[in-house]
Design a protein that fits this description.
The chain has 192 residues and is of the alpha+beta class. 19% of the residues lie in helices and 32% in strands. The chain contains three helices and twelve strands. The strands form four sheets. It has a six-stranded mixed beta sheet with strand order 3-5-7-8-9-10. A two-stranded antiparallel ribbon has the order 1-2.
């Protein structure tokens, strides 16, 4: 049997054909599969996308992002980048062109969204990481990425409850969170 390191997983991942309706990501050499999202999840993503001006920003759902110097190809729920930096084609968006990534927490993605992806996006120097959490009815805005690899993190963190307005200075907008839904009856967690 041949051993496969993290970089070898990248090649294997590129050739993987998941079943329909399954989201697949490569997170630090680990292939992660998730079922299709809940309606609450999809409506939150749509609400955020609708509030970001299309004239200036490309707003892409489930677009693979290439994190430099990482065996990671996360697939954020929403990726925002200036329209003039959008490549003409390709599966992977280079992380230096990305202004903001958005993840909506699901019952099975809490640790990934709050810990693993936080470090991965910070390592990729993505300026803004927005975690929208329908379990805790909160937004976690992370900015000022610093560090490398697994030690990377965001130096600034702001928590805002659903229903409050969230200034997104990098995009020049204020996000209205009043229509964001929640997951009823789901056990609370302790993040961020």
């Amino acid at each position: 049997m041949t051993a496969v390191d993290e970089r070898g997983m990248t090649k294997y991942f590129e050739e993987l054909e998941p079943p329909e309706g399954v989201k697949v990501e490569l997170l630090r050499g680990v292939i992660v599969m998730m079922a299709s999202p809940d309606i609450v999840h999809n409506m939150i993503v749509a609400d955020v996308q609708d509030q970001i001006p299309r004239q200036r920003w490309s707003r892409l759902q489930t677009q693979d992002v290439d994190i430099l110097d990482e065996a990671s190809e996360p697939v954020p729920d929403l990726v925002v980048l200036p329209r003039d930096l959008l490549p003409e084609s390709g599966r992977l968006l280079p992380c230096p062109s990305v202004t903001m990534v958005v993840e909506v927490v699901s019952k099975s993605s809490v640790h990934q969204d709050y810990v693993t992806k936080r470090s991965i996006y910070a390592a990729g120097k993505i300026p803004v990481y927005l975690v929208l959490d329908p379990i805790m009815a909160q937004c976690v805005l992370l900015t000022k990425p610093a560090g490398r690899g697994e030690d990377a993190d965001y130096r600034s963190q702001e928590v805002i409850k659903f229903g409050d307005r969230l200034p997104l200075e990098a995009l020049g907008i204020e996000l209205d969170t009043s229509d964001f839904g929640t997951f009823p009856g789901v056990r609370p967690h302790r993040y961020p």
